[in-house]
Amino acid sequence: MTAPALQARGLVKRYGRVTAIDGADFDLLPGEVLAVVGDNGAGKSSLIKALSGALVPDEGTVLLDGVETHFHSPLDARHAGIETVHQTLALAPAMDIATNLFLGREIRRTGPLGSVLRLLDRGAMRQQAQEQLDALGIETVQHIGQLVETLSGGQRQAVAVARAAMFGRKMVIMDEPTAALGVKESGQVLDLIRRIRDRGLPVVLISHDMPQVFEIADRIHVHRLGRRAAVVRPADATMSQVVSLMTGALRPGDPDAPPNLVDT
Amino acid sequence: MSVTEKAAPSLRNRSAEAFLHNPALGPLAALLVAIVVFSVTTSTFLTVDNLSLVVQQSLVVATLALGQTLIVLTGGIDLANAAIMVLGTMVLAKLVIGGSSSVVALVAGFLVCAALGAVSGGLVTWLNLPPFIVTLGMLTVVLAAGRLYSEGNSFPVTDNLLGVLGEGGYLFGQIRVTHGMTLAVVMFAVTWYALTRTAWGRHVYALGNDPEAARLTGIHVGRTRFSVYLVAGVIYAFAAWQALGRIPNADPNAFQTGNLDSITAVVIGGTSLFGGRGSVLGTVVGALIVAVLRSGLTQAGIDSLYQDVATGVLVIAAVAFDQIVRRRSR
Amino acid sequence: MRRTVPAVLLTVALLGTAACTQTKSGSGGGDSGGPVKIGLVTKTDTNPYFVKLRESAKAHGQTKGAEVIAVAGKFDGDNEGQVAAIENLVQQGVKGILITPSNSTGILGALKQAKEKGVLVIALDTETDPKDAVDATYATNNVTAGELEGKYIKATLGTTPPRLLMMDGTPGGTVDEQRHRGFLQGMGLKDGDPAIIGAAPTNGDQNKAQAAMENLLQRDATVNAVYTLNEPAARGAVAALTAKGLAGKVAVGSIDGGCQGVADVKAGKYLATVMQFPKKMAEQGVDAVVAFAKDGTKPAGFQDTGAQLITDKPLPGLDSKDTTWGAQNCWG
């Protein structure tokens, strides 16, 4: 087995008496799409927050490319090359696509215009934005000067994904990217995810949509009661088996359970 | 994603669209119409003298509104701006009367205004208090401080440097241009540049659009918000200087409605009170519209109460348009 | 574009109204015939005193064939608003400007420019400082008015030593200072006299006056005389005195002669008020500008438009009129 791109062992996070993460493990392999599924309250989002720096775990270790890493803020994770597409998308609606792609990471002109007058290189940002959209095959938007608020839900999602793909060097985390979308637009977002994977960037996909998970994921991480219950391959399992694992009706060791890829 | 064919955007299309999207366009059209109508209905409006006068009349409120624009763009509001400015005028005047050099007085005035802006900004940013409440409190405190400091007196200013913005010359031997006008043009240009051509400006807009989104994209939300209030404070100091140029008398009772006047100019100029949308160009136009209405309606023989009605209707109309545009964009 | 169209329509509609009004009043603009144009700049639009001034000027202007354009500051002390109003009126080509200057020193520059352009400038109600910043002043002599109030209160107290509370106006205001000074002259007191047991600025506002009086009474309720700068302040003061059970035990005087004030005196809320005559100021002002337009005669100096003590309890040696006369001659 190849070395994981990101590995977490024994993560714990407690809020008073509530334990949100209870000794969770996590492995993301290079170039894979890993779906994270779990019932409401299973602690998926806490796990993801711990991996993206949005919360600091009380115990446990995170290894990025085998190196132990401590994230104290989302910015730390971003600087380490981990990009997150939030469910809210984190786009500024009254600003155009190019501006949104570079928000917080603007490119300045070279020379004194940039260093003294802080002048932005709008041409370069537009050009790189356009190249990124082209590379990802996002063609429904008319031009990168379009305001985000004039875009459809799917197009906005595409912009947020494009931004993550542009700056994510290690991995991209996507939180329910298709929850608000129709069938056709969901399909387009799944295409995007595949293209990102094909570039060699691993993707963590949090989703409730089981058919979608089975369509796109290379492996499925089942989260239950604050820890990893099992990791299965879609080819080895049925949807109802995965749902049973999520709810605890089926345990990894059971005779009719699908093969578990990790020790739990 | 590949179903739709890719529309190659021509550059001309793009700039045309950007032009039509510019929120200052509606107000600009309204300003032009107002000027045309007054030019036709009165024989006295469209004269070089009068147009220069209208600009001079709008300078102080326009400068206040410039600072207000920055704050409104972040989704905030500043009710204390005129009070800070008035206190600034008194610091300037009183120091000079007390024998300080005018340069020292100017520095002190700028420091006081900047510090007061920083106090508002600090409370809004780090105590996470609503700007409306913070600046309402600041308004009361600063007004009282001004009255204490002045002991109810007003201070006539005879100093050359403090009154210099009311001085000026004639362009082409005809058009009266005061130094205050020149300063205002420079200030608006610099602010426009900072808002549209630097990362800071983009962050200000993003902050007003959606602070949570701005935070998630890695913008230093707190630092940016604070800097806006600080810069606004400095701009109010310029407004204080402008005010002394126009009326060389620092009066604790002056500009009692300056905060609302500046909000009026900002709103008429098409900047959204919800934050994230608007421009300094709009604010210039908004301030000019108010002055043009006042001047033109007076010259058409309309009493001031009806002038207030007209201004009020414009404010409501501007906000209504903003709402309609926002609703459509959802 | 969709934003532009309604904005344009709205502006056209607004300005259409402006144009119509202008046609109706029949002003041609400029000096070519037509009625004499007179600008009236009051401190605010809200005070009934200024409303009376405005209405009297407009009505009198009509009988004299003059058009009066009334413009006001937004609040007491709005120098900026008054300066803009003067400038706009001068641009419009008025023959004369009647002004109740907001802050005496604040608007001198604009008035000077107006005079330089040949506009007759007359101060109504409030003097400028220096006085020759205007061609003439038509006003109540506020020192006299204050003195009348003071003499009356002194006469009412008789031999009782005064324990005086003073409801002042706006700190630094000319009228405020003159009435205050006049009152103390009438009482035979000086500022700082221990008989003055308290003073507070009220801005001539009833609510502020009430709160100020409540606070002063909290500190010292041995008061037997109250000076008020105007009738709203008197009403506020009386309300506070009544709540303390002091109504009728304290001699309260006031100045203004508004109809409500005269009614207050009639109802016995306070003993006396000193009436001033805004109608006279306005009419004499309009007459002066009309005369100036006709043959260039300029009025000069200070013209006292009079002050009249109004009370239903006349005291020997003080000329006074009763509230019936007051009700016929009051303003507001």
Strand tally of chain A is: 10
**Low-confidence region ranges of chain A:** none
Note the run of SSEs of chain A as H and E: EEEHEEHEHHHHEHEHEEH
The strands making up the biggest β-sheet of chain A line up spatially as: 6-7-8-3-9-10
Give the CATH level 1 class of chain B. Answer: Mainly Alpha
Would you count the extended β strands of chain B for me?
Answer: 4
Bin the strand percentage of chain A.
15-25%
CATH architecture of the largest domain in chain A: 3-Layer(aba) Sandwich
**Main pleated-sheet profile of chain B:** 2 strands, antiparallel
Report how far apart the termini of chain B are: 22 Å
Proportion of beta-strand residues of chain B: under 5%
* Tally of helical segments of chain A: 9
Overall structural class of chain B, as computed from helix and strand content, comes to mainly alpha
- CATH fold annotation of chain B: ABC transporter involved in vitamin B12 uptake, BtuC
Give descriptors for this structure.
heterotrimer; A: 264 residues; alpha/beta; Rossmann fold; 2 domains; 6-stranded mixed sheet; 4-stranded antiparallel sheet; 10 strands; 23% strand; globular; C: 332 residues; 7-stranded mixed sheet; 6-stranded parallel sheet; 11 helices; 13 strands; elongated; disordered N terminus
Structure description:
The complex is a heterotrimer of chains A (264), B (330) and C (332). Chain A is an alpha/beta fold. Chain A folds into two domains: 6-94 and 147-247, Rossmann fold, CATH 3.40.50; 95-146, no CATH class. Chain A has helices spanning 44-52, 74-79, 97-101, 112-115, 122-135, 153-167, 183-198, 210-216, 239-247, and strands at residues 6-15, 18-28, 33-38, 59-64, 67-69, 82-85, 171-175, 203-206, 219-224, 227-232. In chain A, helix 6 runs parallel beside helix 7. The longest helix of chain A is centred in the C-terminal third of the chain and has 16 residues, at 183-198. With 330 residues, chain B is mainly alpha-helical. Chain B has a single domain (25-324), classed as ABC transporter involved in vitamin B12 uptake, BtuC, CATH 1.10.3470. In chain B, the strands form two sheets. A two-stranded antiparallel sheet of chain B has the order 1-4. Chain B has a two-stranded antiparallel ribbon with strand order 2-3. Chain B is globular and about 55 Å long. The model of chain B is unreliable at 1-11 (pLDDT under 50). Chain C contains eleven helices and 13 strands. Chain C has a seven-stranded mixed sheet, with helices on both faces. In chain C, strands 2-1-3-4-5-11 form a six-stranded parallel sheet, with helices on both faces. In chain C, helix 2 (48-63) links the parallel strand 1 (36-42) and strand 2. Chain C is elongated and about 65 Å long. Chains A and B meet through helix 2 and helix 7 of A and helix 1, helix 8 and helix 9 of B.
